[in-house]
Amino acid sequence: MKVPYIRSGKCGNIVWQRNRYGAYCYQAFVPANPRTPAQMAVRGTFGAVSARWGKLTEEQRIIWCRVARTKWSKPRLCQKGRLTGILLFMKVNVALANRGLAQIDLPPGYLKASQAAVLTPLQSGSFDQPPVGPVLFLHANQLIESWQTNPQECLAGQPP
To answer: Are residues 45 and 77 located together in one domain of the fold?
Structure first.
C-alpha cells in the first residue's frame, strides 16, 4: 500500500519532493557557483537589461504590458500562461544583447499610428526561435535586402 504524499518543500536540512516515480527526500545543499567569466558576463547582461526596464517611461511600460498579454510562455509541465510586460521585455532584449545587437524600447511589431508600416519578413516574425547563429542571421538579412533591390539577379541562373 502506498503512503499518501503529504510533504513537499524544505524542513530543516531535508528537502522533500515528488516526481512521477514517487516521493523522495535529500539533504539540502547550496549549488556550486563557479563565477566563471562567461557566467558573470551572462549575469551582467541580464542585470543591465533588467535595470533598463526601470528607465522606461510609463507609456513604454504600458505598451510592453499590452503586447505581452497576447504572448504565451512556453508550455512546461503541461502549463502555460500569458507573459507580463517585464518578462517580454527581458525575453526580447536579453536575446538581442546576447547577439551584440542594440536593445529596443518598444516591442517588436509595435507601430505607432504616425509611423509608416514597412516591415521586412525578418522584422515581422517573433523571437520564439532565435537564428542558428549570428552569421546565418546576417547572411539571411543580406539575401533579403538584395532580393528586394534586384530580384532579377537572384533569379539569373534559373529559367524564366
So the answer is: yes
